[in-house]
Amino acid sequence: MPPEAQQLFGENTESAARFVDLLAERGVERGVIGPREIDRLWGRHVLNSAVLAELIPAEAIVVDVGSGGGFPGVPLALARPDIEVTLLEPMARRIQWLTEVVDELGLTNVVVVRGRAEEKAIRTRLGEADIVTARAVAPLARLAEWCLPLVRAGGLLLALKGASAAEEVQRDASTVRKVGGESIDVVQCGVDVVETPTTVVVIEAGPKPKRTRSRRRRR
Ligand SMILES: C[S@@+](CC[C@H](N)C(=O)[O-])C[C@H]1O[C@@H](n2cnc3c(N)ncnc32)[C@H](O)[C@@H]1O
């Protein structure tokens, strides 16, 4: 276990290690994660996700869109027991995996929901969160279109983007604004904590468009 784990996970460090073991054993068998990732589970996946905690306010309501094997949602929920995390994922096989992980780790601050971010029923069910996270789900413009309706005004969409961040922001900034992004920044998380900090595109959700009532036709 890397030394940063204790700093990031505190009392949940053993649970984080259990998550890594589950991924390396059952996760690889079940195709949730590739066998080549085994040696990089801590650095590239678990710590890289957990450092996002520094952007999340106390007791926030968080939705992790396209959680897949559980990133960044599961490490975040372990690092921050004060927040409530919904893992949103459309694929049945991954839903089964996530449900097992949540049960085995006894994560009382996590729920697993099957669906797609852009579905009306999902928007109605989840309402507006303080924070929406997403890693490796879609290009920035599409991600903003899908996810900003799930973020309350003044809340944040945190897109883990790595090396492509600045380029994606330049390319997609006007679309992001059109679909309700008030401000866009690129920040590094985990500087002075992990070897490779995580690059995150931070989009603040602007005020929500007012609903217009459909006019009745006069006869
Ligand atoms: C490449 S995987 C990344 C998984 C995880 N976030 C990670 O970083 O390891 C993309 C995930 O996004 C999910 N996904 C794709 N489109 C989605 C949508 N519209 N709403 C929610 N999830 C979606 C896929 O099912 C898949 O599990």
Describe this protein's structure.
38% of the residues lie in helices and 23% in strands. It contains eight helices and seven strands; from the N terminus they run αααβαβαβαβαβαββ. The chain has a single domain (4-205), classed as Rossmann fold, CATH 3.40.50.150. It is globular, with a radius of gyration of 18 Å. The chain has a seven-stranded mixed sheet with strand order 3-2-1-4-5-7-6, with helices on both faces. The protein has helices at 4-9, 13-29, 41-50, 73-79, 92-105, 120-126, 140-147, 165-178; strands spanning 61-65, 84-89, 110-114, 129-135, 151-160, 181-189, 198-205. The relative contact order is 0.14. With 219 residues, it is an alpha/beta fold. The longest helix has 17 residues, at 13-29. Helix 5 links the parallel strand 2 and strand 3 (110-114). It binds S-adenosylmethionine. S-adenosylmethionine (SAM) is lined by residues 65-69, 71, 88-91, 94, 116-118, 135-137, 146.
CATH topology: Rossmann fold
Given as residue ranges, the uncertain stretches (5+ residues, pLDDT < 50) are none
CATH superfamily: Vaccinia Virus protein VP39
Helical content stands at 25-40%
Primary descriptors:
219 residues, alpha/beta, Rossmann fold, 7-stranded mixed beta sheet, 8 helices, 7 strands, binds S-adenosylmethionine
The gist of it:
By secondary structure, the protein is α/β, with parallel strands linked by helices. Helix content is 38%, strand content 23%.
